[in-house]
Amino acid sequence: MKLSLLFADCEVASVDHADSGVSIRLSAAHVEQAATSQTEKPLSGFSRGVNLFLEGATLHEATALFGRVSAGRVQLAGQWKSSIPLPLLHVGPVTLELAFANQSQLTVSAHGLQCRFNGDANFAESYFC
What is the tally of structural domains in the chain? Predict the structure, then answer.
């Protein structure tokens, strides 16, 4: 199952400064499952237990960094992306920007990014109309 994390519409449970970087725990990750054939469309849905870790990042302000992400993007290898493969291990310069529905903003620069499930990979298709 090939999955991609889309930053918009994720739900952030917490943003914490760890010993060697910044950890972002998602309570609900907006995920897209790739189509298995050329005639199918990708499936949009959600996954629980997704964590992002930004190696070497420093969190300068940690107020109101929780809830729904209204927009987000990440710069990897000099290119901005609104989604990333899940799981992902990227070594190199990273900039992550998240805009929250509560008007908070998070911009973090780091030396690497790890995005993975905390436990088993899971995906639930969205049935929104």
Answer: 1
